[in-house]
Amino acid sequence: MTDKKVSLLVLSTCLQCKALMELLKTHEIDYDVTHVDLMPKDERSELFKKMAPYNEKKAFPVIFIGDKAIIGFQRKLIMEELGVNQ
């Protein structure tokens, strides 16, 4: 387990997003989640503006581990950052 704060930006219909949440649950990693597609339009637009320099393609999922952001379901990189043995 990790002592770093973990938060996710996901889409409710995204298979990779669901796989990431399942992976975290399997390894008993606590996380906060925001379903971007279910946000009010103005909040979603503001979020996309903030994300643009880091994620111009608006790819999902986005996982924040501590102060590091990982775009996409990059299992190996995510597990390494969390300090979880695969």
TrEMBL record:
<dbReference type="Pfam" id="PF00462">
    <property type="entry name" value="Glutaredoxin"/>
</dbReference>
<feature type="domain" description="Glutaredoxin">
    <location>
        <begin position="9"/>
        <end position="70"/>
    </location>
</feature>
<dbReference type="InterPro" id="IPR036249">
    <property type="entry name" value="Thioredoxin-like_sf"/>
</dbReference>
<dbReference type="InterPro" id="IPR002109">
    <property type="entry name" value="Glutaredoxin"/>
</dbReference>
<protein>
    <submittedName>
        <fullName>Glutaredoxin</fullName>
    </submittedName>
</protein>
